[in-house]
Amino acid sequence: MISNGKEERGHLLVSSVMGQEGDQTFQSNYSIVYRQGEHDKVLLELPAYLFVQPSDKKLSFKKVNFKDADVYILAPQYQTGHGLEGYVFAIDKQSGDVFSLEIIKKGHVSKTLVYSESEPFPYIQNEQLVVHPPIGAGTPEEDTKDVFYKLDLINKLLVAE
């Protein structure tokens, strides 16, 4: 993740759904870049994006392994009160190609995967990504069930079953 220009650093003055008092904030125009040797490939642009984290330690991508690809999830916030949003990237194990994935759920296309802040983190079961949805007051019962996503490497998608 590379800042394109000036990066503003700050902190939260009070606790909120975004984080706890004193959490670090980082805001800039960011590029998510895959670097292999001397070659860089821009995977995603995040203009005027705000990251909130408990400290200024390097952010880690969480990794899950499909048979045909390694999939990485980057969540800019660690808490939100309404589910975490993660950007999803894949490395095709056969071709070595690296790209961002779009998410399709109920006919809607999104750049982010939304999942519960509570455990467990999305995981692989029977070659599907199992995601626990965020649940809050008023969430319809049909939206409280785990969502299963199939990886479509050809079209660069995660598709809800």
Compact summary:
The chain is an all-beta fold and 161 residues long.
Number of strands: 14
Low-confidence stretches: none
State the end-to-end CA separation: 31 Å
> Taking Cα atoms only, what radius of gyration do you get, to the nearest Å?
16 Å
Mean pLDDT across residues: 90
Helix content: under 10%
Q: Class by helix and strand content?
A: mainly beta
Oligomer designation: single chain
Task: Report the principal-axis shape.
Answer: globular
Keywords:
ten-stranded mixed beta sheet; globular; four-stranded antiparallel beta sheet; mainly beta; about 160 residues
What does it look like?
The chain has 161 residues and is mostly beta strands. The chain has no helices and 14 strands. The chain has strands at 2-3, 8-11, 24-36, 39-53, 62-65, 69-74, 84-92, 98-105, 108-110, 112-115, 123-125, 128-131, 147-152, 157-160. Strands 5, 6, 7, 8, 9, 10, 11, 12, 13 and 14 form a ten-stranded mixed β-sheet that branches. Strand 8 (98-105) and strand 9 form a beta hairpin.
What is this structure's SSE topology?
Layout: E1 2-3, E2 8-11, E3 24-36, E4 39-53, E5 62-65, E6 69-74, E7 84-92, E8 98-105, E9 108-110, E10 112-115, E11 123-125, E12 128-131, E13 147-152, E14 157-160
Parallel strand pairs: 8-14
Antiparallel strand pairs: 1-3, 2-3, 3-4, 5-6, 6-7, 7-8, 7-10, 8-9, 11-12, 12-13, 13-14
